[in-house]
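Q&A log
Question type: sequence-to-structure
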Amino acid sequence: MLKDKRILLTGGNGFVGRYVQQKLEDKGCEDITIVGSDKDLRLRQNATDAVRDIDVVVHLAARVGGIGYNQQFPASLFFDNAMMGLNIIHEAELEGVEKFVCVGTICAYPKFTDVPFKEENLWDGYPEETNAPYGLAKKMLLVQLQAYRKQYGFNGIYLLPVNLYGPGDNFDVEQSHVVPALIKKCIYARDNNEKSVTVWGTGEVSREFLYVEDCAEAIILATEKYNKPDPINIGSGFEIKIKDLVYLIKQYTGYDGEIVWDKTKPDGQPRRKLDIRKAQKEFGFISHTMLEEGLLKTIKWYEENGKNDC
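Response status: OK
Response body:
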């Protein structure tokens, strides 16, 4: 019963965090502490302060970005994500926190992984090079949680969400992931009568996308019901090629110009699709938002919420 717990959300002011907070409040949770960018969790004392008198930690804080951002800041992404996680997990165990929920990343999987990705494939190779530092930093938190469980009996779980999107996403083209970046590009081009939009890569790689509200629901269910050391995939089970995604967004935004593929830019991982059976078996999670519905909601949100300021 989470409603009686003292809950800490790191990254609670972020994209996913706002949805998790709302779902916790819907369940009657009143004692929720939010740690945002104002508290630098790379500093151990801040992590110590954050977990004091806390029963449950949901660790969402992360420094993230798309392929270009990962290529530009690999060291920062590795250090920042590793240090935040190492500190908050260590201090949570020292404080006697009852449960720790760590939200990892699909980027932890090997570059070439049999599709659909099964959790037991996680250690079968090196991650895709453009985001390996980020993926490995987050992957080390799984190692830490499993080690702390073995040595201290610490109840830490690790979730592997696929690519997320939805209202409230980061639409900064320099930092954003593929869905918000494409929406922003197409709407800007539409509004400014531009004849073409340039998209990185060949468009032949595939991705799986999960609507952010569905992801928040999965996090809550896992927090309530899952207590095992093994990582758990969180996804929709639906795979789409990037070129098909681009033309969907082009259609839904009403942009009628040309798509130009910049094949000098990297594609990233060749395919992404998760085996999601374990999440359904262990805590009953099934995503409910179809990609088309989620894209329309996201586009509508962007159009209505200061697109010129994003």
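Response note: The radius of gyration is 19 Å.
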